[in-house]
Amino acid sequence: MRLGPAVLAATFALCAVLRPAAAQRQPVAVITGTLLGADGAPMKLAHVEVIPAARYREISRTVVRPDGRFATATAERGAIYLRFRGVGHEATLVPLVIASPVAFAVDVRLKHLVYSDSLEHVAAVGDWNGFGATAPTPLARQADGRYTAVVQARADTVAYQLVGLQAGGGGRLPANGTEGEWYAPSPQGGYLSVVRTHAGRATIVLDPAQLDRRPSAFSLTFRGPASPISRQYALWAAWQAQRREYFDSSNAAYGRHDSLRYDWAPVVARRSAALARERDPLLRQMLLLQLLDAAQFGATVPRGIAQRIVREVPPSSPLWCDPDRTPWMIQQAFEIASGNRAEGLDSTAARASLAYLERVVAHNPDSNQQSMALFGALRIARSLSDQPRVSEYYARLVDGYPNAPITALARTRMAPRRLWRVGSEPPAFRFPALDDTTVSYTQASFPGRVVLFDFWATWCGPCVRDLPYLQAAYDSLAGRGLEILSVSFDDRPSDVRRFREGQWRMPWPQAYAPGGTGSAEFRELEVTFLPRMFLVGRDGKVLAVDEGLRAEELLPTLRRFLEAPSAP
After folding, report:
1. Given phi > 0 = left and psi -120 to 50 = alpha, else beta, which region is 487?
2. Considering 101, 185, 297, 524, which has the largest number of Cβ atoms within 10 A of its Cβ?
3. CB contact set of 494 (below 8 Å; sequence gap of 6+)
4. Pairing of strands 201-206, 147-152
């Protein structure tokens, strides 16, 4: 039997644990346990992977046994992720810090994939179309309720995935199909379903009856609940739950068109009490940084706590690797510790922050955090109007970390020759109107108006959270010369139409960028991330870019420019 090349590569991965040179060292952590599906049964195929946070590249992959048990080990010290994944389930990353030799056992259950309510746009990608390199193959609904597609094949098998099957933003991600003779890990993420071919053809079948739509949740239980590694995870998980509670309250306030009133005082009190009892240095750092996280969301953190943060959390701490925080948050700790935060920019705290961030670059082993520290230093230097340092930090970031995600952001926001910069004319653009493609919007479409350009998508959470502020701005300032143009980078115009019909009317002009985030406009206009906001004045010059145009800062910024003498 001949197998397609993608299947051969993925099948080989099933038979081997990746063994780079580092894996030959003495293991520091030995992890055993069970990995099961949401129903408590073993999955068709599942893996446990070890990913160092500093490199974020998988260094080992262990196949879970047919009975759901697994055993793996790593020689990696510091911050790591354990990634648990299986067919038909959401992959989950669990962050841990390995500070000393340890052995522990965990029992894990994964959450089912959440499927779209509508399957009309599901399509297949696989061997025959380069996994989406050419157009995906749409599935057609049959009389029996199933969805199918017939594809051409040169080998005896076809490996495929389905796009548009997962709900929400996950619809952009590939998912394994409901039918396969076997499964294999996919280089694109998730799992491949593999089916046999007959006479050079294969039939891809999606059976809605096989989609498990029951509610489910991820769970992880340590068999030694009092162990340091278990307590570390418990602290992290509890803080994630706290963050979700805050964001749920925030989203509910947005939905009511109301201001957010969240009481952080009990949270700060509980965390401070736990800090007073804690003796483990690493867990103390976790608690301190969680209090700093709370300060980012508006919590009042005592000055003494801030002083402990800058004293006890070293620049080399592996806890800076948490994706929910960045090293430049340390500036807020220095400002609170100085006691002058309410008075605006504190140059002493800013320069102390710069020194701390320099030590992150020098001593933290995570190159991503090094680039984040340089970006933070760049922001601080710019706030100090220290142009020599701005130029220095920008050059160090772009030259030393050209492929870091934060470098792309720096290029679009801070590059000397970026397209969207205050005082310049915006780049030329032409976008078709969402509801009438015979109409196009350009800069000339809004003569004599102050225009807020809103680049967004329905699957972009921060974009949607900004909509109440956009609505308030439009309602109060449209009569005074404000226009808004929202340009959607969704995959399909119909996604935007359904959103406007069911969630938010958005009565201002709407445009659509064909091709979504893969379009030329996305790159050529330096959008590169969503949301992006640009404000252009009546004279056709850029007034503001991103900063000052988000959430509660939007209205004051717009009023300032609309009331300025140059924009009467």
Report:
1. beta
2. 185
3. none
4. antiparallel
- pTM value is 0.74
Structure tokens that stand for 55 in this block:
């490199």
Look up residue 399 and give its amino acid.
D
pLDDT for 220-263, tens place per residue? 999 988 888 999 999 999 999 999 998 888 777 766 766 678 89
What's the per-residue H, E or C state across 44-101? CCEEEEEEECCCCCCCEEEECCCCCEEEEEECCCEEEEEEEEECCECCEEEEEEECCC
Which residue from 218, 263, 273, 216 is spatially nearest to 242, judged by alpha carbons? 263
User: Which tokens sit at 258?
Assistant: 């109301």
Residue 464's contacts (CB-CB under 8 Å, 6 or more residues apart) are: 458, 503, 504
Strand order in the sheet with 482-488: 510-512, 482-488, 450-456, 532-536, 542-545
Residue type, 429: F
User: Which residues touch 176 (CB under 8 Å, ≥6 apart)?
Assistant: 87, 88, 161, 162, 183, 190, 191, 192, 193
pLDDT (tens digit, 9 = 90+) per residue, 301-319?
A: 999 999 999 999 999 999 9
Give, in degrees to the nearest 5, the angle at Cα 556 between 478 and 565: 70
Q: Over 70: is that where the pLDDT of 98 sits?
A: yes
Q: Which residues pair with 258 in a beta bridge?
A: none
- In one letter, which amino acid is 198? H
The tokens for 80 are 């790591």
Q: Report the distance separating Cα 534 and Cα 542, nearest Å.
A: 7
Torsion of CA 346, 250, 236, 284, to 10 degrees: 30
Domains (range + CATH), the chain: 5-109 (2.60.40.10), 123-210 (no CATH), 226-414 (1.25.40), 431-562 (3.40.30.10)
